[in-house]
Amino acid sequence: MNIMKIEFYSLEKRNNLKYAVIISEDKDGFVLVKHSKRDTWEIAGGHIEIGESPFEAGDRELKEETAAVDYSIEEICDYSVTINETVTFARLFYAKIKSYGQLNSEIEKAQSFKELPKNLTYPTIHPVLLQEVIRRVRDR
Predict the structure, then answer these.
(1) In degrees, to the nearest 5, what angle opens at C-alpha 106 toward C-alphas 38 and 45?
(2) For 52-93, what is each residue's pLDDT tens digit?
């Protein structure tokens, strides 16, 4: 049995951040992406490349995976996911998308949703990340 735990942290300079994950929203709802090799929906995001800052990775992944052209993006917090004994750290972002270009990546499509669909790639993680961003963004 896998035991999973998600924890949130303040933004800090961390050397162990592996991913940038971007909760994005447009006028029609929250934007999720469908990878061409999967039948599920997911939040935009990906690996932080060597020599790339977390912000650069978040900005790059947002553009690559949603084709966002006119948008704002901000760092929200860091988080960790622990599954059994393995801990992975990531930076969580929030983006407001005003316009899109043409998708040109491994992503088949990006779509807005008023509510999260049932077929999520990470159904135990994505809802928690979305709720944390909503809480932090709406509380300001």
Answers:
(1) 85
(2) 999 999 999 999 999 999 999 999 999 999 988 899 999 999
What is the mean predicted confidence (pLDDT) over 15-19?
93
Structural domains of the chain in order of their starting residue, each with its CATH number: 4-138 (3.90.79.10)
Dist CA 73 CA 62 (whole Å):
9
> What per-residue confidence (pLDDT) applies to 97?
98
Query: Which residue matches tokens 């947002």?
Result: 62
Task: Report residue 109 as tokens.
Answer: 């499509």
**Cα–Cα dist 65/104, whole Å:** 8
What is the Cα–Cα distance from 134 to 138, expressed in whole angstroms? 6
Task: Tell which wins on pLDDT, 81 or 139.
Answer: 81
- Whether 98 contacts 70, CB under 8 Å: yes
Q: Do residues 106 and 23 lie in contact, with contact meaning Cβ atoms separated by under 8 Å?
A: no
Cα 64 from Cα 122, distance rounded (Å): 20
